[in-house]
Amino acid sequence: MSQTDDRSHPLPDSAQDAARAARAPHTPQTEAPSYRLAFTDTDFLLREELRPVRLQLELLKPQMLMDEHGITSTVVIFGGARIPSPERAGQARTPELGALSHFYTEAREFGRLMTERSLAGGGHDLVICTGGGPGVMEAGNLGAQDAGGRSIGLSIVLPHEQSPNAYVTPDLCFNFHYFAIRKMHFLMRARAITVFPGGFGTLDELFEALTLIQTRRMARVPLILFGGDFWREIVNWQALARAGTISEADLDLLHFVETAAEAAAIIDDWPHDNG
Asked: Where on the tree of life does the source sit, at the highest rank (predicted)?
């Protein structure tokens, strides 16, 4: 049976009609914007009123493709795009940033360790997922490649040009317009969330995940912060508890580590049904 015949209904599919419409004679009527098929009309899809449709498309496309590739769970790596690899530490914009370069090494090692665990189970669980950019994200994807496995990159269109790093698995490299939908995809399959030193974007991702877990809008998963000194300096966690704006128990949602091995051990020991 041909692909054309192997359908659940007798009607022509959208691809067939798109091809037929493209072969229509060129007349004032067929060349008018109103005549274009709605689902092939980019100008129409980009209209303000179509935002709900675009939101749905950005949710569906990565979801469907990850399903097709058998991705059942991920390990998320958040962290700064500006953190250099150790060999480039001397080129960092500040000495303090250069001193954080060892976290590039740890992110790469963590990506490798998690991917080895993923491959041992068939390669569908614990798949590394990053923001697809440079710095810590690049290191995580590189570590997955070191282990011979796949990794995901969730990029976003930014005002300055930024291509996905070279280590994201091409078939699992996505690009987003909506930050909110991108953040949903980071967390929808997450079995663990790791956060390396970073800037505003990293803080945003950390506190979004932390809030969802605290309010039980998301099942509790390991939330692991690399670099205790960094995180305790930029956020006075204990002051929040003393002020009563969070509870002492909320501090238990955070795990501080320095090395990839420590983070991997927390994930290994985490009960899968912990919610």
From this structure: Bacteria
